[in-house]
Specification:
Elements (H helix, E strand, L loop, with lengths): L7 E12 L10 E8 L7 E3 L2 E3 L7 H13 L1 E16 L12 H5 L3 E15 L7 H4 L4 E8 L2 H5 L6 H9 L1 H6 L7
Parallel strand pairs: 1-6
Antiparallel strand pairs: 1-2, 1-4, 2-3, 2-7, 5-6
Length: about 180
Amino acid sequence: MRTPPRPVVKRTARAILLELDPDDPHSPASIVLIKRTRPGSPHPYWITPGGGVEHDDRSVVDALHREVDEELGGKVVDVVPAFVDTVSHPLHHHPGGGTPGDEDMLNPHGVKVQHFFVCRLASMDLSRRHGPEVDEPNGEYEVVRLPFTREGVTSVNVVPPSLRAYLAANIEGVLALLAPDLG
């Protein structure tokens, strides 16, 4: 008997956001991440820019552009699908972005699908940031750049862990997704 697919109850669009020097293709790339520290927690984690796909977003890629604009005042180009992460997620919404309770973790009813896109940073103006992370922050959101190397992406707690492992194993492949001859 086949297990039916779990319902997708949330989708996110996230940017594996690379800074590359177009004049020097041999110069090292950087990845732009957000260092996230929750109130009362001494342990930060690093996330890719992005967030939930909203009802008025025409597509997942449109949600990606909106989120990068909100969180970084940024524009991206060369958006290429790279990685999908699927995790259990409760069917009901948690107000204020709260975390699920233990009962949700024991009895998940659906999944959250996170779409990760490799893209090139075209521009960023942190003074243009807006949206809930800026208007009503829940902790600290610090924009950071790390070397886009195995050592760089494993030197911090990049979440989800599946993304950290994917990046560490695929530095060259991810860069190849932005190669001019890809098509």
